[in-house]
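HOLO CASE FILE
Compound: PMV
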Amino acid sequence: MLPQSIVTQILSKYIIQQPSKWRGQAFAPSNIALCKYWGKRDIELNLPVTSSLSIALGQQGAHCTVSLQRAAQHELRLNAVAIAAETVFGQRLRNFLDLLRPNNSCHFNVAIELNVPFAAGLASSASIFAAVVLAINDLFNWHLPERELSILARLGSGSACRSIFPGFVEWHAGVAADGMDSYAEPLPYTWPDLKVGLLLASSQPKALASGAAMARTVATAPFYKAWPAKVTQDLVALKLALKTHDFHLLGQTAESNALHMHALMLSSWPPVVYSVPLTLEWMQQVWQQRNAGLAVYFTQDAGPNLKLLFLKHDEPQLKAHFPELTVMV
Ligand code: PMV
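Model generated. Tokens follow.
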């Protein structure tokens, strides 16, 4: 099934044409998965093999401003720098805008202000695609329900469907071929004392995009068949941890989930390795600190950086051990 037919289906069901505004604006947060999305059951529609669960990074993410323009093509800027059509990301974003425009003669002027490093495993693309959908929804006065906004964002980048919401979010994998049951939803938990910090090993764009790495894992990793059961178990544990504020259960589950995902990549062929020496050094330091009694865990996405999970009262101690730590939320 083609993404365009999904967009048409959603817009024809919900949209009563409204006059568009002069411009649309929106913010979407980055999100870090505590239980990862790794593997697609449909590549065109970004439908996942499993559900996943994330935490949004508060005010860290993408601000997007969209307006219509007369030029013969979309004009895109990221932090005031033009995004060239020749780049992979430029092409991806243009294809996505084509999907969302009401007709072929409509072209957008899009300005994105990103306050997290770009393409460094920090879900920058998730926040960008979600912010673009929200800004276009604002521009055209669509007033789409959040579920449909989440589905549209998913067509741009899988994990973007979670960036429609703040806080803790679950993306339901769904089973339908058209993916209309594959959307994210906010979970009814809050945990103001839970902190996420970034250890940036590198802000270089990754050598292998997450989509290509996922496809290789699904096709070649012999252990991939064990992944859905691991996710099911981890989702139950994470929701219990969020409900009861059991920090050790949350940290253990998130860290183990990330390590399992990277183990799948290591077992792929050719192998997919996102860690660099500093990544492993920091992991060891986290384990040392934990053995010494500090409550800290890590998670890692499709990049070499670590995100540390800890509680607010331990922030000064953690900063003393990891001077490079940037507290995100
Ligand atoms: O949505 P994508 O294609 O950027 O993939 C995200 C993959 C991970 O960040 C590694 C996991 C996740 O659930 O966010």
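CASE NOTES: Residues 9 and 306 are 39 Å apart (CA to CA). Residues 247-266 form the longest helix (20 residues).
CLOSED: yes
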